[in-house]
Amino acid sequence: MSIFKKYLEESESVFKNEIALDSNFSPPGKMEFRENENQYIAQCIKPLFQRRNGKNLIISGAPGIGKTLACMKVKEELEETTDDILVFYINLWKKSTQYKIILELCEQLNYKFIQNKSTDELFKIVKQKINQKSAVFILDEVDKAESTEILYPLMEDIFRKTIVMITNDKQWIYKLDSRLKSRLTPDNLNFRPYSKDEISSILNKRINMAFPSGSISKNVLDIIISKTHSLADIRTGLFILRESGLIAESSSQKQINMEVVKEAVSKLGDFRKQIALDVDETEILDTITKNPEKTPQELFEIYKSKEGNKSLRTFQRKLSTLEKADLIKRENIEGIKGRLSKISKKDSRLSDF
Known about the structure:
With about 350 residues, this protein is of the alpha/beta class. The protein is about 45% helix and about 15% strand. It has three domains: about 35-190, Rossmann fold (3-Layer(aba) Sandwich); about 195-275, Helicase, Ruva Protein, domain 3 (Orthogonal Bundle), CATH 1.10.8.60; about 275-345, Winged helix-like DNA-binding domain superfamily/Winged helix DNA-binding domain (Arc Repressor Mutant, subunit A, Orthogonal Bundle). Strand 3 (about 135-140), helix 6 (about 150-155) and strand 4 form a beta-alpha-beta unit. The radius of gyration is 23 Å and the shape is globular.
């Protein structure tokens, strides 16, 4: 008998809608507990409706407290309201250079003829298309970009715009070049962490969408809510719920009990590290995992052989990011050529319950 046949025969699932537990899922309706923040963002965009320049805005706050989702809700409502304002969302940790950002703008404008065109040529085309209307640029993880040079042409060459910059680093604005700061003159909006009651309401609504009624007892849910509140990150609560469902389903359970949740929490450490990594950092961490106790230079040669044209300077900066995130450890040893560093992945888990 096929090893997959039994799965076809199992018609029931512990999930009603697993997608509702994705951190990128946007529940229908207004966003809970961020009404004031959404209104503030809308006020910055408001002048664009009169074909005037909007206000620029820096949104700061800890990870996992709804900054991106709030902006995506504003984007969704704006696109439903008017066709005269273009809205672009770009994650600058994933699109970290000016060229990649401009390519992403081309993609969102549905402009396909990018071959053999320079950065300047592509931006000239982008500028012409965008300036036919007004525009909102939502630049997520703006502090993770390799440079902020894209902000200059957006400020100088786009006629009517609002630039919304999302960052976890409240001090990021002070690190910008003074000339750029004077051009941006942004408003500042800080997102406070969710309270425990707010976390409870948000998770309960996701549970009602994701699971059949009665799948999680109040005692078990209280543990998940407390854990999420202690880590101050809604994404971790969603991860625990989804992982608990998968664990329960794998053992043909229809209820999410305390043992299942404990097992899900034991996997939380790796998840919290993963959600903060970009593509290059994930690949570098994988290289380190597969090649422990190597020097930075040795790791770079391995990484470069797989990834092609990569700079040592960027590689070293990514290593530093991984080290600050407590994902890797650096051990100094005495070698033939003097003192050397050897790097390995750090094994850390948030298994405390």
